[in-house]
Specification:
eight-stranded mixed β-sheet
């Protein structure tokens, strides 16, 4: 059995693990990095992420004259998170994030060479003052993969590179403990087992979102019954196996019922695993309808305000899916997909292409790809024909054709009236969106759906899709894992999604969006600060 020995073992080569390794090399501390994936997939979920980060006090905000502050961010965070009595460490991490994300995340990434799109986006605005009161969402040039590649480059070129040992294709079976201290781990590397001895073990293996059985086991009933048709937007490697190991050692694993799923999932045209889905960034000018083709209400659904509320509505709908009905022109201007490879211009840093597509009203290639290949997208020239295609897609007659047509006609009629006569919450929210220039460039101005010059009509069947775990291993502000009595388990640390992005649940019940990648960096670096102090 091959045996390795190092001061620190980092389990998981996602963004948290890579950030921690780089920080360890900066402190000249030997480290072994273990990951179940092969080299091309190092980076975990960040490898495929869009790359958005919630940040404050940045030059990008200053250029857009956004009057933000850490205190204001923390106030918004508390309203969104709804922390309870058991969320002491999650709240502490949230406050730490608000006051340190600029230096520990933004400035650190800038020093490494990561750059951000100049335009700050305004996401998760909330429905009732419980979201982002200001724009804070920063998009990294190169998306998540660009960040991963930057960190790998610096690791490989680091003056202390000889202090880093990397073992890929290794799944951790057990954590080793001696005299009450975690002292290493046992891994399965295919045909052979390996044992690692380490003074400190840092778990960065992600959450449970890639394990459909665990997602269903911990499903929050507030979001409706456990869905039979749920999609998975997370690689099956993210299965929560290390959560079980930590719990077996007496560590606290909390809040696994808190998940950050999305309501606009569609089947992946080229699935890499069973139930593989894509998470859409849904159009705001489409009508969101139930399985019968009737507009959802009385509060109409509009994306960009409250993701958890969208999931709650979808989870309680008949059949637990929705339809978004729109036309081709709306789709080209407003529809997007979260992820690295579905945003190639951002991924490849083609700034002129991004500007050109934004100013000319979108890029039809993405919409054409979905129409041609996505199993959940149908088109037709008339609403009656579209209803037939919708029924064909689900295999039985469910759409109330006359009701759907009436809803579409009523919406288009409302668009035609002067703004002073608008008495529809979706129209009010579209007006609010268009008051912020980055959103105005991606949101139609009064585009009727039944406009024959804007066709064909498009219907998108959307389902819940699992993405991230907002609960995990309970950690203090040094990323040390705590046992059931609240005491530190010597030698054991957790960072990133494995720790609920900090404290077993830094986000509470609702994320302000963009908090995940940046929390991986923050918690990974702080873990190393704790380890370095101990060493």
């Amino acid at each position: 059995m091959p045996t390795y020995s190092s001061e620190v073992a980092v389990i998981g080569a996602g963004l948290a693990g890579l950030s921690a390794c780089l920080e360890l090399l900066d402190h000249d501390i030997p480290v072994i990095l273990l990951d179940g994936s092969r080299e091309p997939r190092l980076g975990g979920q960040a490898h495929d992420a869009f790359g958005g980060m919630l940040l404050v006090d940045t030059p990008e905000q200053a250029r857009q004259r956004i009057p933000d502050s850490p205190e204001r961010l923390f106030d918004d965070w508390l309203r969104a998170a709804r922390f309870g009595p058991g969320d002491h460490w999650g709240r502490a991490w949230a406050e730490t994030y608000a006051h340190q994300c600029r230096g520990e995340v933004y400035d650190w990434l800038r020093r490494l060479g990561v750059r951000f799109v100049p335009s700050v986006q305004w996401v998760e605005r909330g429905l009732y003052g419980d979201g982002n009161s200001l724009p804070r969402y920063h998009i990294a040039w190169g998306c998540g993969r660009g960040m991963v590649e930057t960190l790998l480059h610096h690791l490989n070129k680091h003056p202390n590179r000889h202090r880093l040992t990397t073992v890929t294709g290794c799944r951790i079976k057990t954590l080793d403990i001696a005299a009450g201290r975690v002292v290493g781990c046992l891994g399965d590397a295919g045909a052979t087992e390996i044992r690692v001895a380490a003074e400190h073990v840092l778990v960065c293996t992600g959450g449970i979102a890639g394990n459909p059985d665990k997602v269903r086991q911990y499903w929050d009933p507030a979001l409706g019954p456990v869905p039979d048709n749920m999609l998975s937007g997370t690689h099956p490697d993210i299965d929560g196996a290390l959560h079980e190991q930590v719990a077996a050692l007496g560590g606290q694993v909390v809040n696994l019922q808190r998940m950050w799923n999305y309501a606009a999932g569609v089947g992946h045209p080229e699935p890499a695993w069973p139930g593989h889905g894509l998470s859409l960034i849904p159009p705001r000018s489409a009508l969101w309808m139930d399985g019968h083709g009737r507009r959802i209400g009385p509060m109409p659904l509009v994306s960009g305000f409250d993701t958890r509320e969208l999931c709650r509505w979808t989870g309680h709908l008949p059949y637990q899916y929705s339809w978004q009905v729109l036309n081709y022109r709306i789709a080209v201007k407003e529809l997007a997909i979260s992820g690295t490879d579905t945003n190639p211009d951002f991924r490849d840093r083609r700034i002129m292409k991004v500007l050109w597509n934004t100013l000319k009203g979108g890029d039809p290639s993405l919409v054409d790809w979905l129409i041609d290949h996505c199993p959940d997208v149908v088109t037709a020239e008339t609403p009656e024909a579209l209803a037939v295609r919708m029924d064909e897609r689900v295999g039985e007659a469910r759409v109330d054709v006359s009701g759907m047509v009436n809803d579409l006609l009523a919406w288009d009629a409302a668009l035609g009236r002067h703004a002073r006569w608008h008495n529809d919450d979706q129209l009010r929210r579209i007006r609010q969106l268009r008051d912020w220039t980055p959103d105005r460039l991606r949101t139609c101005r009064r585009q009727p759906i039944l406009d024959r010059t804007a066709g064909p009509l498009v219907a998108i069947r959307e389902r819940l899709i699992s993405r991230k775990s907002m609960g995990g291993m309970l950690t203090d502000l040094h990323s040390r894992v705590l046992d059931r009595s609240g005491k530190v388990i010597p030698g054991l640390y957790a960072a990133g999604e494995a720790a609920g992005f900090g404290g077993g649940g830094i986000c509470g019940v609702r994320s302000l969006e963009g908090t995940f990648l940046s929390s991986c960096i923050l918690t990974g670096r702080r873990a190393v600060r704790g380890i370095a102090g101990g060493l």
